[in-house]
Design a protein that fits this description.
Blueprint lengths: L6 E4 L2 H10 L10 E10 L5 E8 L5 E5 L4 E8 L5 E3 L8 H5 L7 E2 L5 E2 L3 E4 L2 E4 L8 E2 L12 E5 L6 E8 L10 E9 L4 E10 L3 E2 L3 E2 L2 E2 L13 E4 L1 E5 L12 E2 L11 E2 L9 H6 L3 E6 L8 E7 L5 E7 L3 E5 L9 E2 L2 E2 L6 E6 L14 E2 L5 E11 L2
Antiparallel strand pairs: 1-2, 2-3, 3-4, 4-5, 5-6, 7-17, 8-11, 9-10, 12-13, 13-14, 14-15, 15-31, 16-30, 18-29, 19-22, 19-24, 20-21, 20-23, 23-26, 24-25, 25-31, 26-29, 27-28
The structure holds beta-D-glucopyranose.
Beta-D-glucopyranose binds next to β26 and β29.
């Protein structure tokens, strides 16, 4: 367990020698990784929220707060080594508490939509809050993104690590079973942000967790994401109806604007005359990832920004990924000195398929007691010329 302030997770010999002679570890020293903790504010009901800054040996920096186990900022270098924040978010707690667009948050108990907020499990019907038209979205009125988690920083050789825990009560937001969830962020020294989810339950319950970061690899939040280039390792996707619930079909991407098997400019087909694009005002679908076996850790997507050379590869053990182009961003509220306009950020949410509790042909999302849940996603950062 690391302390507050200049705690450190790993050193090189050089850094150790420096520490011995000066007795002080420079926060910006590129040879060491560390975690710092600070206060970020209070929720309206008076709960203190902390923010942790994780810095790896290469100088990459991730800030994670205990409200929503949320990634608040992530600094990564461009092709000339210039660090910039590449995830949308806010400088203070208030917009996270009063707004609803899930910037950087951990989503649960069920990421994405459940049709009519209803499902039946082992013969019992459950009703969830309908917070998105007729459906339940991202865990209901007060999902995991709006809860204060506890945090523990962990010493790890390959980069600073923060383990966040939340205990969701039996019946919370209509879901059965007390669920204990741990989300561990690690900013690895090989420039990957790893996010691991572990959960246990006291009763059978549907679960689906993701991270809802909006990426803008340019680091300039006044630019949209339409010029970025995306590859998605999927030859099928799950088309939706007008309320964005999957129809159950696994539709081939070939010959559609959903074919990202080869790296493609995001804006190239986003305004095509296509029913699916009309429903969501842009991309907002789940792609069925190509896997050698169901829980294999494999590449889901690669996103690159030709202007800055920044690249992120997303790898996951999950079967699906939601690619969403910020279609409901409307310029409010403003964050980090910018106004988040239409399509200023995009999400790559690794997940099980939306509405799985009502779709018997989709991979199961039911967690049972005695069977711990584990899921792992990593975002690997590099640059290209
Ligand atoms: C969903 C969108 C939704 C957005 C909210 C995404 O995960 O796919 O439909 O509007 O979250 O921020």
């Amino acid at each position: 367990m690391l302390g507050i302030g200049i705690s450190r997770a790993s050193f090189t010999g050089v850094a150790l020698a420096m520490l011995a002679t000066t007795g002080f570890a420079y926060a910006k020293d590129a040879t060491m990784s560390h975690i710092q903790k600070a206060q970020f504010g209070h929720t309206p009901d008076g709960k203190a929220v902390e923010i942790y800054t994780l810095t790896n040996k290469g100088g990459l920096e991730a800030r994670v707060m205990t409200y929503g186990a949320t990634l608040v900022s992530l600094k990564a270098p461009d092709r000339s080594g210039h660090l910039a924040d590449i995830v949308l978010g806010f400088d203070s707690l208030e917009p996270y508490v009063t707004g609803v667009p899930y910037y950087g948050a951990t989503i649960g108990r069920y990421a994405n939509r459940i049709a009519n907020g209803r499902f039946t499990l082992d013969g019992v019907s459950y009703q969830l809050p309908k917070n998105d038209g007729p459906n339940s979205l991202h865990g209901g009125d007060k999902g995991f993104d709006k809860r204060v988690w506890t945090a523990q920083s962990v010493e790890a050789k390959n980069g600073p690590e923060l383990k966040l825990t939340y205990v969701s009560a039996d019946g919370e937001e209509g879901y059965p079973g007390q669920l204990t969830i741990h989300v561990t962020y690690q900013l690895r020294n090989d420039n990957a942000l790893s996010i691991e989810y572990q959960a246990t339950t006291t009763k059978p319950t549907p679960v689906n967790f993701t991270n809802h970061s909006y990426f803008n690899l340019s680091g300039d939040f006044n630019r949209d994401i339409l010029h970025d280039v995306l590859m998605i390792n999927a030859d099928k996707f799950t088309p939706v109806n007008a309320t964005l619930i999957p129809t159950g079909e696994l539709r081939p991407v070939a010959g559609t604007p959903f074919d990202f098997r080869k790296p493609t400019v995001i804006g190239a087909r986003i305004n095509d005359d296509n029913e699916q694009l009309h429903y969501a005002h842009g991309y907002d679908d789940n792609w069925v990832l190509v896997k050698t076996h169901p829980n294999a850790m494999s590449t889901a997507a690669v996103l690159s920004d030709p202007e800055t050379g920044r690249v992120v590869e997303v790898r996951t053990t999950e079967p699906g990924i939601q690619f969403y182009t910020g279609n409901f961003q409307d310029g409010k509220p403003a964050g980090k000195g910018s106004v988040y306009k239409y399509r200023t950020g995009l999400t790559l949410e690794t997940q099980h398929f939306p509405d799985s509790p009502n779709q018997p042909s989709f991979p199961s999302t039911i967690l049972r007691s005695g069977h711990p849940f584990v899921s792992h996603t990593e975002f690997i950062f590099r640059t290209e010329k």
